[in-house]
Amino acid sequence: MKPVFMTYTKKDLINLAVCMVLSVLIIPTFIKTEYWYTSILIPWLCLALATIGQQIVMGYTGQLALGAAGFMAAGAFAMFNLILRVPDLGFVGSLIVSGLIAAAFGILFGLPSLKVRGIYLMVATLASQFFIIWMIDKFGWFKNYDSSGIITAQDIVILGKPFTTPLAMYFVCLAVTTILTLLAMNMARGSTGRNWMAVRDMDIAAESMGVSLLRTKVQAFAISAFYCGVAGALFAFCYLKSLEPVAFDIKLSFKILFMCILGGLGTINGAFIGAAFILLFPVLLNAIGNNVFHGAIDATIISSIEQVIFGLLMIIFMIYEPLGMAKLWENLKQSMKSKLSSSGIKGVKSPVFKK
Amino acid sequence: MANELLFFMEVLVGGLLAGTMYSLVALGFVLIFKASATFNFSQGAMVFFSVLAFCGFMQDFNIPFVLAFILAAFLMVVVGLCTERLVLRPLMNASEDTVLMATIGLGYVLEGLAQAAWGVEVRRLDLGIGDFPVPWIADNLKLFISALDITAGLVAAIMIIGLFLLFKYTKIGLGLRAVADDAGAASSIGIPLKHIMLLVWSAAGVVALVAGMMWGARAGVQFALVDLALKALPVLIIGGFSSIPGAIIGGLIIGAVEKILEVYIGPFFGGAIEGWAPYVLAIFFLLYRPEGLFGEKIIRRV
Fold it and tell me: Is B7 a member of any domain?
């Protein structure tokens, strides 16, 4: 397809326009209940952003990492301290700097990726998860010597205007997510992303072609951690409205991993699909529990069932469609298209997992 | 001086014995990794699943200890059978990373099933062995060492000797080693791959059950066991993924180092460094000896 504006094709621009109209105009006019903003849309945007971070390092660069929640915690607590101690930075400035602080951690804990891969790397990244949470927990300075363990997040103020209603916070999350998503798409399509994918598909070949492994991997880890850091800050300030290290435990890391894999490795829209699925599915399951069985099933059983289903889905996707829901969506579109025009299937994407 | 030395010895021995608990969990990982080059991320969940089932049989149905153990072990064989059939066989030709992801999914399934069946509250498991210092050792050697630690050490030793003999001297063991070297070649000369896989997964399940009983007696049977089992990962990295002695030595090193660091260096940082110290130790090992102490060198062909 020919690009019409910069490097974007007509399809890209239409997609962007549809998403923007949907999120800026249609959702705020039709959804009035606060519940949707505070419990679904805001966490969805935050977690989708974190999942994009996970995508960059895992889906695009092929490095098995499992520490997204650690970087999110780093971002969230950096944000808290920046607003507290350097109020001149403002909300947006603090958000960027806290992303950069998370990125610094990302570089530090991404370094082992130069030596090891696969499960070995996973263990190395687990170190970051446990270390960052421990550090925040043990040094009172990060929590401003608050003894209760849970700190209330400061109000969001941008250019002197408070953003405290759910709708306003939704717009904050939406703006940040949109900008960073566009940026991620640009990177993924440009030479940066091609380097990532070259390293993913065959690192030795990539190196012999002149792609610097050191640069590419460290860059991927840094950018991934930046995304997670910003997502963590938004997650704490717009969704949780409080800061506690426990909220960013290993379970959240696994959740983001699931979002990334079920959504579709190596795709940006997969991050949104995966996050939506993992967030909405428990809501649906609870609704079924309440309305169909009228609360006859215990809530803990429902959450156990939810876990079983996520696990089963993971196995099923690994067996039948390792590229996740984004690929299913793609296949659906292709089959619709080929039904409309008998031109057949084209543009099969390369598999993420190599043999 | 003598007192300081004694205290150090106590910390060291306590750490080493606690390390055997990690070794027990790591052993299950090694068994599966040896036979199928699959990293079974669900081993931690298997520990939790098996011991919770064991507790459930004993406490909810009042089944006697031995029978409950047999039932739980049988349950783990069934889990192994289902895993081989439904997860591993369809993924026979998939990449390592894909299988790893599938085992993470399997872990989720097991955790969810266990909690749905037996509830989420912490269960106490009483093996009849107290978690307190053995009086005889305390009196004669002036060392305070828990009876449970000693039992765990003994159980680990017995299992290792048993598995070692199994691998070395039986026909099944020979088959296992053949499959581990080259699954394709092994199956082409008539070694029943399916049976070997089933056997390995069942053995790993029983090892998980024993490890779970030891951990459960100490910390209560609860979900945190899954996270504890994650500590077997640094153990494996230090010992090497495919070595049974490696799992043991790795466990001992992690146990001893984390206790010593916690006691002597921890106070400077506010304590609780054992949460991440093993992982950082593992990173250093990865940088200098990625294959671990006893593992086979990883050779990647281009």
Answer: yes
